[in-house]
Amino acid sequence: MSVPRGALDIHVHAGPSVFNRTHDAIVLAESLTRQNIAAVYKSHFGNTHAHVRLAETHVPEAEVYSSATLNSFVGGVNEAAVEHALETDAAVVWLPTLDAANFNVTALGRDYPFPVRNLTVADDGRATNSVRSVLETIADHENRTVLGNGHVSCKETAAVLDAIEEMGLSVPYLVTHADFEFMGLNTETQARLADRGAILEKCYLPVVHGDLSAAEFVASIRRIGIDHCVVSTDHGAVANESPPAAYETLLETLWNEGLSEAEIEQLAVTNPRRLLGVETPA
Question: In CATH, what class is 8-276?
Answer without folding.
Answer: alpha beta
